[in-house]
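Box 3.1. Reading complex inputs
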Amino acid sequence: MLKMTGVSKIYRTSQIETHALNKIDLQIEAGEFITVTGPSGSGKTTFLNVAGLLESFEEGDYFLDGQNVSGLNDNQLSAIRNEKIGFIFQGFNLLSDLPVFDNVEVPLRYRGFSASERKQRIDNALEIVGLTSRRKHLPGQLSGGQQQRVAIARALAGEPRFLLADEPTGNLDSSMAAEVMELLEKINRDGTTIIMVTHDDELAARASRNINILDGRVLKNEQPSHKAAASVVDINAQPQQEAEHAGV
Amino acid sequence: MLAYNLQLAWLSLRQTPGLSALAVLAIAVGLGILMTIQAQSYQMRSLPVGEDTENIYLVQMDNRDIDAQNIEEAAQLPSLSYRDAINLLDSDTPAQQQTIVWKTRGIVNTREQDINPVRAPAVVTTHSFFSMFNTPFLYGSGWSEEAGRRGDAVVVITRRLNNTLFGGEDSVGRQITVINAVATVVGVLDEWTIKSQFYDRSFFRGFSDDIFIPQEFAASMNLPRYTQIQCAPAEMRRMAAFRLGDIQTIMNSECGWINLWAEFDSESSVQDYRDFMFRYVEEQKALGRFPREQNNFLENIIEHQNAALNRDDRFKLYQRLAWFFAGVCLLNTIVILLAKYIRKTKEVALRRALGAKRNTLLGQYLIELMVIGLIGGFLGIAVAYLGLQGMLEVYMYGTDYVFPRSAVNQLYSLDWKLIQNALLIGISSTIIAGLYPIWKVCNIAPAPQLKTE
Amino acid sequence: MGIRPLLLSLKQNKFIALMVILQIALTLAAVSHSAFSTSALLKDWNVASGLDEQNLIVSRAQFFVDNPDRESAIVQDLENLSRLPGVEYVTTANQIPFAANSVSNVYRETGDDAQRYLASVFELNDAALDVLGVELVAGRNFYPNEVIRGELSATTEYPSVVMISEALSEEMFPGENALGKTLWPVKDNQPAEIIGIYTNYMTGEILNGVGKSYNSAIRPMALWSANRFDPGYLMRVEPGAAERLLEDARTAIYRLPGRYLYNNEVLTRTKKRIYDGRGSQSMLMLGISAVLILITAFGIAGLASFLVSQRQKQIGIRRALGATKKDILRYFLAENSLLTVVGLLLGAAVTIGIAVKYPALTGDGALRYDLILAVGLFLWLVNIIAVYLPAKRASNVEPAAVIG
């Protein structure tokens, strides 16, 4: 599904060379919910950017959905991002000039869908995140949690294979963070692979697998201990109950 | 605090060098175009000749037929008839000095074999012309009042003609032939810069005519009258005779063709002269002349000049376009300044959060605007200088280089007053353009801007 | 890409959008008005002269002594001038090409309601066509014995033949053969038979100004009038000899004393004079307009550059969501074009409004929709160019650097 072998990313200045990513070997299967942890500056955001094709890398091979992406040009990369990857950022990164509906529409327009197809997908995505009634609001008129849900809807609307999330709850208070987290888990259960960068161990523990990065290297790559033995069904069942509780 | 503000202004300018430069450029070009046109207008509207001529007035009296059209502007009224001009010239009037002017032209020749004749326009006038208009003399002087009365065969020529005919030597005492009249040179004018030929009311741009001939002598030689002659419609068919026939014909007519200029030493004597004109016309009415209601004008040389300028449609068009263009540049400045200050939103929010009062920030940005305006003003002056040089070149080309550069230079020059105006307009228009942008940025609520998005 | 996101985004930047629209509208109005007056000025400007003006010299003198023998002076001048090495043909001339400012009405018939045709009538001698270097397209040249010379008031018999230009022939006798037809050079006066038709040459400013630059007729005559005018001389010279021959011509003319040479120049100079006034005014208009367009373009470029830096993040997000570089470039160009089109429409309305309400503002020109359209398209093109660089910069924004 996603396979990196010996991927390195090097930042060069005139004096020093920094290995932001150092020979990453990694394989992620469809349906996994991966969390990436590590201290500030460890390279986890760089990893996410490289994985999301937002940054190039110098060495190694990266296969996405079976396709080697190292030799692709900018237009091809844009197309892959548009079709296969959804992004969710800590700062939401909504287009502040556009209302909710039009924000969600952005990737669909680049995809070249017809107006009716776009509308259907947007309606779907907004329903999933529970913001159908806010479609005409500008991002500035929404709360942080709502804004992040718009961002999730935008990422979902294109029905991507991967969802890359960079500290999606970092700017939210705990109740909103929980809401967003439950939403992500629900999306994962519906079949979308999620890779999420976080510094919150508690959230990391809820994932199917945790990757710990330090100085650009993968330090640990394991299933959280309490889930090691649990079946896939078990992993998915628990949050659903929590979601029902939260809804009460 | 001022020093701190200036320092901040400078820093702020350097923060957005591109936009600051564009703002300066927009101001400079708008101002430059405006100044290029305004400078010409200003120079043309200043005294056409030297200093101490602001007290010179043109004397006009309406002696036309009863059925002629009403005239309410001095500029429209014909000049004086010969009879009235001479009557007033010979009277004891409240004016300090008076002179008359009309024009002729013809071929001028010397006795020298190797000098080819030239065709030159000439001014027929009286001895007082030279003292009234402060003409500078290179050699000799004007003729005396007595010489004028006697009809002595004398002339004054310009330095230019003296160069052509006598190679620049002192030609006083030498003889020239003007058409058919042989006359002795009594004076050579030095370089006499005038903006336009004001003395015959034509206000043609350029330099003065080349020869000055005394009235009595010109009349005795029957020199042609190549000057503006305005007559009753019935008289128009005799125009050829008026111009080229016996000069007595036009001297006896009621046609207007003599320009009478009077100089005054006080405002009250101008008023006295008006009364004098009124009495004179009443006397003439008693003699059966002046059939119309009294309609006299005694207007300043400047007013006549400005009336002539206002008739110049082409110049008016330039002026309108210049304002139009300056307007576009101002709009441009507003947009650029808006872009510049919106960029500062975060910085303003931060300063406000740190306790800066809105008025302090407004003050700081006002100072920055002044600096932009000042630089724009200076650059605008440079643009105007280039623009004026360009207009001068175009004018020289467009008039096929008949005028020497020195004769028209002044119309395309800047002086301190213009420069001062340019700076003032530059600064004030920048502030006007910047008011909305800085007001907008200073009124932004600080809190939302400081939250990371 | 749809227009809706553009509109939504502009709604958030109303003031800037408004200013850009106003600026473009005003620029269009100002430049259009310059264009109206320039196009009127440049109508028939510098059209083909039909002559080798660089090989033509004019010398015109006037007697100032009383009662000279003008007839023998003309004979002597013609001989002196044609003997100058380099001079090929000489003719007497009452007026010369490029400066033919005596324009008359000529007629095909007599009577009060006879149709008038505007033309410059040239009084030249039998060398006329050789001097001018125009071709005879039909008919014959003058015979030397057809040339009439004399004092104006003493002359009662005028030439019985005349040649006309192709242009005049087409205007007076459309679809007919003008040869052999009769022409009245002066109303109800002696008529003349048209014996030749020659190729067109430029007459002068007056006819040029009314679009009839080439309407001319040539009569074989040389008249003078005491104290009024003497005929001048028009010479064809060898290529390249014109400048050198000016001085020789001057000397030749001054060989007879008692007169004043007031015009001695190569016809290139005469030609310059009919166009330079209008040319210089147009140059000014165009210069100012160019500066204005440049300033507007700078403003637009500055603004676009500002919008780009303000939207760095937005661009990054769009890129992350799958926009290609081209999509970003197109977004900025489309946004600018949208504002430009609205500005141009408004500007066209303002231009037409002003032209209708204050016709004096257009100078000598008149409202012309095609010019508004041309200026508008040009402005649009300039704006695209002005926006291109900032937009290109926008498309190169690295998404990873600005988001997250």
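In summary: Chain B has two domains: 2-48+313-450, 63-294.
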